[in-house]
Amino acid sequence: MIEPILLVTGMSGAGKTEVMKALEDVGFFCVDNLPPPLLRDFSQLQSLSSDPDQRVAVAMDVRGRELFPELLAAVDGLEEAGVAHNILFLDCADDVLVRRYSETRRRHPMREGRNLFECIAAERALLAKIRARANLVLDTTGMKPHQLRERLGRMVLDRDVRLDLVVDVMSFGFKHGVPLDADLMFDVRFLANPYYEPALRHQTGLDPAVADYVFAQPEASETVDNIASLLERWIPLHAAAGKVRLTVAIGCTGGQHRSVALAEVLSDRLAKQFNFVSAIHRDMRRTAS
User: Fold this and answer.
1) Any idea where the domains of the chain sit in the sequence?
2) Quick one: which of 85, 254, 277 has its CA closest to 173?
Protein backbone atom coordinates (compact mmCIF):
# COMPACT_ATOMS: atom_id res chain seq x y z
CA MET A 1 0.00 0.00 0.00
CA ILE A 2 1.40 3.39 -1.04
CA GLU A 3 1.76 5.89 1.78
CA PRO A 4 -0.39 9.07 1.54
CA ILE A 5 1.30 12.13 0.10
CA LEU A 6 1.76 14.85 2.70
CA LEU A 7 1.02 18.32 1.31
CA VAL A 8 2.70 21.00 3.40
CA THR A 9 1.47 24.57 3.11
CA GLY A 10 0.71 27.51 5.34
CA MET A 11 1.78 30.98 6.33
CA SER A 12 5.10 32.35 5.09
CA GLY A 13 7.46 32.43 8.04
CA ALA A 14 5.57 29.70 9.93
CA GLY A 15 8.46 27.27 9.57
CA LYS A 16 8.04 25.31 6.33
CA THR A 17 11.82 25.08 5.87
CA GLU A 18 12.27 23.62 9.35
CA VAL A 19 9.30 21.31 8.84
CA MET A 20 10.72 19.92 5.60
CA LYS A 21 14.10 19.37 7.27
CA ALA A 22 12.38 17.59 10.16
CA LEU A 23 10.37 15.42 7.76
CA GLU A 24 13.57 14.44 5.94
CA ASP A 25 15.08 13.49 9.29
CA VAL A 26 12.24 11.04 9.94
CA GLY A 27 12.48 9.43 6.50
CA PHE A 28 10.33 11.49 4.14
CA PHE A 29 11.33 12.22 0.55
CA CYS A 30 10.72 15.96 0.35
CA VAL A 31 10.06 18.28 -2.59
CA ASP A 32 9.91 22.00 -1.91
CA ASN A 33 7.86 24.59 -3.82
CA LEU A 34 6.33 22.22 -6.36
CA PRO A 35 3.98 24.12 -8.74
CA PRO A 36 0.42 22.88 -8.06
CA PRO A 37 -0.26 21.89 -11.69
CA LEU A 38 2.52 19.30 -11.40
CA LEU A 39 1.08 17.68 -8.27
CA ARG A 40 -0.98 15.00 -10.00
CA ASP A 41 1.90 13.96 -12.27
CA PHE A 42 4.19 13.85 -9.24
CA SER A 43 1.77 11.55 -7.41
CA GLN A 44 1.99 9.09 -10.31
CA LEU A 45 5.77 9.01 -9.98
CA GLN A 46 5.37 7.85 -6.40
CA SER A 47 3.78 4.61 -7.59
CA LEU A 48 6.98 3.83 -9.53
CA SER A 49 9.11 3.81 -6.39
CA SER A 50 10.70 0.49 -5.48
CA ASP A 51 9.83 1.15 -1.84
CA PRO A 52 6.06 1.28 -1.27
CA ASP A 53 6.65 2.44 2.29
CA GLN A 54 8.55 5.56 1.18
CA ARG A 55 6.78 8.60 2.60
CA VAL A 56 6.61 11.73 0.45
CA ALA A 57 6.08 15.35 1.45
CA VAL A 58 5.48 18.24 -0.96
CA ALA A 59 5.63 21.88 0.12
CA MET A 60 3.56 24.42 -1.80
CA ASP A 61 3.01 28.01 -0.78
CA VAL A 62 2.47 31.54 -2.09
CA ARG A 63 6.00 31.61 -3.49
CA GLY A 64 4.31 29.97 -6.47
CA ARG A 65 2.71 33.37 -7.11
CA GLU A 66 0.12 33.16 -9.89
CA LEU A 67 0.21 29.33 -9.83
CA PHE A 68 -0.71 29.00 -6.14
CA PRO A 69 -4.47 29.62 -6.62
CA GLU A 70 -4.47 26.37 -8.61
CA LEU A 71 -3.64 24.38 -5.45
CA LEU A 72 -7.29 23.69 -4.62
CA ALA A 73 -7.86 22.37 -8.13
CA ALA A 74 -4.75 20.20 -7.79
CA VAL A 75 -6.06 18.76 -4.53
CA ASP A 76 -9.39 18.08 -6.22
CA GLY A 77 -7.45 16.24 -8.91
CA LEU A 78 -5.83 13.99 -6.32
CA GLU A 79 -9.21 13.17 -4.83
CA GLU A 80 -10.71 12.40 -8.23
CA ALA A 81 -7.79 10.10 -8.99
CA GLY A 82 -8.12 8.35 -5.63
CA VAL A 83 -4.64 9.41 -4.50
CA ALA A 84 -4.36 9.25 -0.71
CA HIS A 85 -3.10 12.49 0.80
CA ASN A 86 -3.02 14.61 3.91
CA ILE A 87 -2.77 18.40 4.11
CA LEU A 88 -0.58 19.90 6.82
CA PHE A 89 -1.19 23.63 7.33
CA LEU A 90 1.40 25.59 9.27
CA ASP A 91 0.14 28.60 11.18
CA CYS A 92 1.71 31.14 13.50
CA ALA A 93 0.70 34.25 15.43
CA ASP A 94 0.91 37.47 13.42
CA ASP A 95 3.27 39.24 15.83
CA VAL A 96 5.68 36.28 15.73
CA LEU A 97 5.59 36.25 11.92
CA VAL A 98 6.41 39.96 11.89
CA ARG A 99 9.29 39.43 14.31
CA ARG A 100 10.70 36.55 12.25
CA TYR A 101 10.64 38.61 9.07
CA SER A 102 12.18 41.56 10.87
CA GLU A 103 14.98 39.39 12.24
CA THR A 104 15.78 37.65 8.94
CA ARG A 105 15.19 40.79 6.81
CA ARG A 106 13.69 38.60 4.11
CA ARG A 107 11.13 39.97 1.71
CA HIS A 108 7.58 38.71 2.18
CA PRO A 109 6.37 37.00 -1.03
CA MET A 110 3.23 39.20 -1.05
CA ARG A 111 4.99 42.49 -0.32
CA GLU A 112 3.89 44.58 -3.32
CA GLY A 113 3.77 47.92 -1.51
CA ARG A 114 2.19 46.59 1.68
CA ASN A 115 3.61 46.65 5.20
CA LEU A 116 4.20 43.33 6.93
CA PHE A 117 0.90 43.22 8.80
CA GLU A 118 -0.97 43.92 5.56
CA CYS A 119 1.04 41.18 3.80
CA ILE A 120 0.13 38.67 6.50
CA ALA A 121 -3.54 39.62 6.37
CA ALA A 122 -3.59 39.27 2.58
CA GLU A 123 -1.88 35.89 2.78
CA ARG A 124 -4.36 34.64 5.39
CA ALA A 125 -7.21 35.58 3.09
CA LEU A 126 -5.56 33.76 0.18
CA LEU A 127 -4.93 30.64 2.26
CA ALA A 128 -8.32 30.51 4.02
CA LYS A 129 -9.83 27.86 1.73
CA ILE A 130 -6.85 25.50 1.80
CA ARG A 131 -6.61 25.89 5.59
CA ALA A 132 -10.27 24.88 5.85
CA ARG A 133 -9.50 21.68 3.94
CA ALA A 134 -6.40 20.79 5.96
CA ASN A 135 -6.78 17.74 8.19
CA LEU A 136 -3.58 18.61 10.09
CA VAL A 137 -2.94 22.09 11.48
CA LEU A 138 0.25 22.91 13.36
CA ASP A 139 0.71 26.23 15.15
CA THR A 140 4.46 26.87 15.37
CA THR A 141 4.19 29.92 17.61
CA GLY A 142 6.89 29.63 20.28
CA MET A 143 8.16 26.27 19.01
CA LYS A 144 11.86 25.47 18.91
CA PRO A 145 13.18 23.20 16.11
CA HIS A 146 13.46 20.11 18.32
CA GLN A 147 9.92 20.66 19.64
CA LEU A 148 8.69 21.01 16.08
CA ARG A 149 10.34 17.73 15.08
CA GLU A 150 8.85 15.91 18.07
CA ARG A 151 5.36 17.31 17.43
CA LEU A 152 5.55 16.39 13.75
CA GLY A 153 6.51 12.85 14.62
CA ARG A 154 3.49 12.43 16.84
CA MET A 155 1.16 14.19 14.41
CA VAL A 156 2.28 12.61 11.13
CA LEU A 157 3.81 9.28 12.19
CA ASP A 158 1.94 8.77 15.46
CA ARG A 159 5.11 7.87 17.36
CA ASP A 160 7.88 9.37 19.46
CA VAL A 161 10.65 10.28 17.00
CA ARG A 162 13.09 11.06 19.80
CA LEU A 163 14.00 7.36 19.62
CA ASP A 164 14.94 7.87 15.95
CA LEU A 165 18.21 9.62 16.69
CA VAL A 166 20.84 7.83 14.59
CA VAL A 167 23.61 6.40 16.78
CA ASP A 168 26.84 5.31 15.10
CA VAL A 169 29.16 3.31 17.34
CA MET A 170 32.52 3.67 15.60
CA SER A 171 35.64 1.66 16.31
CA PHE A 172 38.93 3.30 15.30
CA GLY A 173 42.68 3.15 15.81
CA PHE A 174 44.46 6.04 17.50
CA LYS A 175 47.51 5.50 15.31
CA HIS A 176 45.37 6.42 12.30
CA GLY A 177 44.07 9.61 13.93
CA VAL A 178 40.95 10.33 15.94
CA PRO A 179 37.63 10.61 14.04
CA LEU A 180 36.78 14.27 13.53
CA ASP A 181 33.04 13.60 13.54
CA ALA A 182 32.99 11.91 16.97
CA ASP A 183 30.62 13.40 19.53
CA LEU A 184 31.83 11.15 22.35
CA MET A 185 35.13 9.27 22.48
CA PHE A 186 36.33 6.44 24.71
CA ASP A 187 39.86 5.00 24.91
CA VAL A 188 40.05 1.22 25.55
CA ARG A 189 43.80 0.80 25.16
CA PHE A 190 44.02 -0.24 28.82
CA LEU A 191 42.71 -3.68 27.80
CA ALA A 192 45.24 -6.39 26.90
CA ASN A 193 45.90 -6.30 23.16
CA PRO A 194 45.17 -9.45 21.10
CA TYR A 195 47.69 -8.18 18.57
CA TYR A 196 50.45 -9.68 20.67
CA GLU A 197 48.91 -13.14 20.41
CA PRO A 198 50.29 -14.63 17.16
CA ALA A 199 47.15 -16.70 16.53
CA LEU A 200 44.93 -13.59 16.85
CA ARG A 201 47.11 -10.91 15.26
CA HIS A 202 45.61 -11.16 11.79
CA GLN A 203 42.03 -11.62 12.96
CA THR A 204 39.62 -8.84 13.98
CA GLY A 205 37.21 -8.12 16.78
CA LEU A 206 34.47 -9.69 14.65
CA ASP A 207 36.12 -13.08 15.00
CA PRO A 208 34.85 -15.09 18.00
CA ALA A 209 38.37 -15.96 19.17
CA VAL A 210 39.33 -12.29 19.43
CA ALA A 211 36.04 -11.29 21.07
CA ASP A 212 36.45 -14.11 23.61
CA TYR A 213 40.01 -12.96 24.36
CA VAL A 214 38.89 -9.36 24.89
CA PHE A 215 35.87 -10.19 27.03
CA ALA A 216 37.78 -12.71 29.12
CA GLN A 217 39.01 -9.54 30.82
CA PRO A 218 36.36 -8.40 33.33
CA GLU A 219 37.22 -4.79 32.55
CA ALA A 220 35.86 -5.18 29.02
CA SER A 221 32.33 -5.99 30.15
CA GLU A 222 32.52 -3.32 32.86
CA THR A 223 33.52 -0.78 30.23
CA VAL A 224 30.59 -1.67 28.00
CA ASP A 225 28.23 -1.49 30.98
CA ASN A 226 29.55 1.91 32.03
CA ILE A 227 29.41 3.43 28.53
CA ALA A 228 25.97 1.95 27.84
CA SER A 229 24.66 3.28 31.13
CA LEU A 230 25.80 6.78 30.22
CA LEU A 231 24.42 6.60 26.69
CA GLU A 232 21.06 5.22 27.77
CA ARG A 233 20.66 8.41 29.80
CA TRP A 234 22.34 10.81 27.40
CA ILE A 235 20.87 9.75 24.03
CA PRO A 236 17.31 10.88 24.95
CA LEU A 237 18.77 14.19 26.17
CA HIS A 238 20.60 14.74 22.89
CA ALA A 239 17.44 13.84 20.97
CA ALA A 240 15.34 16.20 23.08
CA ALA A 241 17.82 18.99 22.28
CA GLY A 242 17.22 18.44 18.55
CA LYS A 243 20.25 16.37 17.60
CA VAL A 244 19.52 13.81 14.87
CA ARG A 245 22.83 11.90 14.82
CA LEU A 246 25.31 10.89 17.52
CA THR A 247 28.69 9.31 16.84
CA VAL A 248 30.25 7.36 19.71
CA ALA A 249 33.89 6.51 19.01
CA ILE A 250 35.66 3.59 20.70
CA GLY A 251 39.41 3.65 20.16
CA CYS A 252 42.28 1.22 20.57
CA THR A 253 45.76 1.25 19.05
CA GLY A 254 45.08 -0.05 15.54
CA GLY A 255 41.29 -0.22 15.39
CA GLN A 256 41.33 -3.92 14.59
CA HIS A 257 40.75 -5.91 17.79
CA ARG A 258 39.64 -4.36 21.09
CA SER A 259 37.64 -1.39 19.83
CA VAL A 260 35.88 -3.55 17.23
CA ALA A 261 34.83 -6.16 19.79
CA LEU A 262 33.52 -3.53 22.22
CA ALA A 263 31.75 -1.52 19.52
CA GLU A 264 29.86 -4.62 18.40
CA VAL A 265 28.63 -5.48 21.89
CA LEU A 266 27.81 -1.85 22.72
CA SER A 267 25.81 -1.32 19.51
CA ASP A 268 23.84 -4.52 20.09
CA ARG A 269 22.93 -3.38 23.58
CA LEU A 270 21.87 0.12 22.48
CA ALA A 271 19.82 -1.30 19.60
CA LYS A 272 17.50 -2.88 22.16
CA GLN A 273 16.36 0.59 23.23
CA PHE A 274 16.87 2.86 20.23
CA ASN A 275 15.65 2.50 16.65
CA PHE A 276 18.71 3.35 14.55
CA VAL A 277 21.98 2.04 15.95
CA SER A 278 24.82 0.69 13.84
CA ALA A 279 28.43 -0.34 14.33
CA ILE A 280 31.02 1.19 12.02
CA HIS A 281 34.60 -0.08 11.94
CA ARG A 282 36.68 2.67 10.42
CA ASP A 283 40.13 1.09 10.57
CA MET A 284 39.45 -2.61 11.00
CA ARG A 285 40.65 -3.70 7.55
CA ARG A 286 43.42 -1.14 7.38
CA THR A 287 45.62 -3.14 9.72
CA ALA A 288 44.18 -6.62 9.16
CA SER A 289 46.01 -8.82 6.70
Assistant:
1) 5-159, 163-287
2) 254
Name beta bridge partners: 51. Answer: none
Q: Which of 192, 260, 267, 178 lies closest to 231 in space, CA to CA?
A: 267
H, E, C per residue of 63-98 = HHHHHHHHHHHHHHHHHHCCCCEEEEEEECCHHHHH
167 beta partners: 246, 277
Q: Is the dihedral of CA 61, 66, 72, 77 positive or negative?
A: negative
What's the helix, strand, coil split of the chain in %, to 5? 50, 20, 35
**Which helix (DSSP H) or strand (DSSP E) does residue 171 occupy?**
strand 166-173
Bridge partner residues of 85 (DSSP): 5
Can you give the pTM of this predicted structure?
Answer: 0.64
CB atoms within 10 A of CB 153: 20
| pLDDT tens for each residue of 197-219 | 999 999 999 999 999 999 999 99
Give dist(CA 94, CA 117) in Å, integer.
7
Residues 6+ apart with CB under 8 A from 124: 11
Closest CA to 257 of 278, 223, 279, 281: 281
Pair 255, 262: CB distance under 8 Å: no
CATH architecture of the domain covering 5-159: 3-Layer(aba) Sandwich (3.40)
Give which of 219, 216, 220 is closest to 260, Cα–Cα. 220
Which strands form 276-281's sheet, in the order they lie side by side?
Answer: 184-187, 245-252, 166-173, 276-281
Q: Check pLDDT > 90 for residue 147.
A: no
Least reliable range by pLDDT among 17-31, 163-177, 199-213: 17-31
- Cβ 9 vs Cβ 60: under 8 Å: yes
